[in-house]
Amino acid sequence: MTDILEKVSSNRAFEGELIKYKFKSATLGGVNANFNLFLPPGASATNKVPLLTYLAGLTCTEDNGAQKGAFLGPAASQGIAILFPDTSPRGAGVEGEDADWDFGTGAGFYLNATNPKYSAHYNMYSHVTLELPQVIETAGLPIDLKRQSIFGHSMGGHGALTLYLSSSTKQYRSASAFSPISNPTKCPWGEKAFSGYLQGGVEEAKEKYDATELISTSKEPVHILIDYGTADNFYKQGQLLPENFLKAARDSGYDEFQVRVRSQEGYDHSYFFISSFATDHIHFHANFLKA
Question: Which Gene3D superfamilies does the UniProt record give (predicted)?
């Protein structure tokens, strides 16, 4: 499915190692894809560690969460690896993909495109859930793929929640999100993305790519944590809609132990907010990844 995995760089951090890799991605139409992988101290072929995947937001790359999220120290202390994928294919050459900051490059929305214009390259759903784990396994990296969880920020929070809730294989044990786009079929960012990437637009997205729609019909046990800031301008503008997700979860019978949504007074949308609650999220996932 992929060509050779190439190590681009390596940095020691918290007695572990943050490694950047690149490879030619078949899922993304043959373009080079980068990702960062943090391996905690003690990870080895005889001591494979659980994997937490972090999905970044609009305009971000594989570096934002790794460099600014404050995740590495808590992950090292818990013996958890963190995978940081990119947010879209790069250099696909699709006409118009660089025209807007909130669509195209840097804005893959963690879906598989069905619009023929984008479907050869914009398949971040399969890239994250299938291709990257296969690359990691083939490369012999010390990861226990039977223990996976997922989290993310903004567009990546949308991705984390939808990949978790829509996975028929129950790939992830838990999900969390910072300021997620929680009901994207009801907000401008989501409407724009779905109208462009999907042949069926918003209606097609409801079945697989809207966390509020997914939780409203879910009957499976879930483990979800969401934080958002009350001073977040995107929250104020109606892009995030966490209340919609919370109401749908409660209406489906999920209590605060299964779905917890926390409003954080005075925090905005930035990595200052994310880093303030990074340890909470790592410890939340550790409860399930280390079980």
Answer: alpha/beta hydrolase
